[in-house]
Amino acid sequence: xxxxxxxxxxYHTGGENVEALKGIDLKFRECEFVSIxxxxxxxxxxxxxxxxxxxxxxxxxxxxxxxxxxxxxxxxWDTYRNHSVGFVFQSYNLIPHQTVLANVELALTLxxxxxxxxxxxxxxxxxxxxLAKQMRKKPSQLSGGQMQRVAIARAIVNNPDxxxxxxxxxxxxxxxxVQVMDILKEIAKDHLVVMVTHNPDIAEKYSTRxxxxxxxxxxxxxxxxxxxxxxxxxAKAQSREEINRKKxxxxxxxxxxxGLSLKNLITKKGRTALTSFAGSxxxxxxxxxxxxxxxxxxxxxxxxxxxxxxxxxTIEAQNVDISTLLSTFMGKAKSISEHEDDAIxxxxxxxxxxxxxxxxxxxxNDLKAxxxxxxxxxxxxxxxxxxxxAGVQYGYDIDLLIYTKxxxxxxxxxxxxxxxxxxxxxxxNMDMSLCLPCVSSPLWAALHx
Length: 449
Prior knowledge:
CATH class of the largest domain: Alpha Beta
CATH topology of the largest domain: Rossmann fold
CATH architecture of the largest domain: 3-Layer(aba) Sandwich
Oligomer: single chain
CATH superfamily of the largest domain: P-loop containing nucleotide triphosphate hydrolases
Largest sheet: 6 strands, mixed
Structural class: alpha/beta
Number of strands: 14
Strand content: 15-25%
Number of helices: 16
Strand order of the largest sheet: 6-7-8-3-9-10
Number of domains: 3
């Protein structure tokens, strides 16, 4: 038995609350044909969706076979919709690329019914609605009334307890509407059929009970359930609930999912081809970008390794940061401007260079500790640095008195100090040996230890 207790439904739209249902109380018999009448916007379809589990109520309770749904989870609602409710809408909602028989079988597929049993029950449902000869056709080959009868067959094939019909004759002519209503009336002999309609004539002719609604409330009920009837209905419902609990949860096997997807792809070949082509371009583009990125990274790594092998790293006992000196030269080079011919201008480049050299500070490196670390890593076979340390060389600070001849066949000392002084004298026209601050600067000491 189905029972609604003080059901309310509130929609929150645009910062406003719209109360679609206001305290609905209804009890339904196990087998009857109930028509819900009322103007548009009175909450008929909302009530039908709540009964079918397609929408959730805001407050109140929906009792199904004596069981409250307040603690129902999504999985429980899926089971309820699949095993206990059949839907017939104004729009037929048939899958266009499936045959009539396949459309009816789909509900049983989700229930896990074997293929042979599924085919048998689908044919029986189509025979009940008078479409036994149309089961191999596609929906596009049927009339509107025939498609609505296919939707009815799909709703009853799983033998649900409740059939919910939302304006089933709204898009049909009078003759076809009569055929559909005759089928629903026959189904109502052993099922609960709840139909929403605007047509009072159809409701009066076919329904056993008419419920009228206005502004989200029930204003009349032609045959409400008595207390004695309710007790009998609850007893029947509880025994049937034990059977429903043993039914399988709705699911679809991997093979069935693959088969339906394959049929869909084959039916829509053009769209499938375009989608595959676009997807292929995207995949190829991503692969190309990744390949170029990896190739560039590999090339940069190779260049870095070659550069390090050509220009090895040198670690000395004393380190002098000459960036300040270089910035002084660069600044002066950028500040050169044109001068008039009849004027004398002063450039303090040499003075500033000497001040920069005097301000440099030498840093001492702990080469002893570093050498011990290098030797330890080279001796360790499992060290990741062992291969990189194969080319380590050591040099010692020995002042050798070596002389050579220059281009003028003059004998000169070939160490860095004498050659640096000669260079400064030649290009700056100044004897740097007399520049005591320069000779005693940290940079000079680092260049001439």
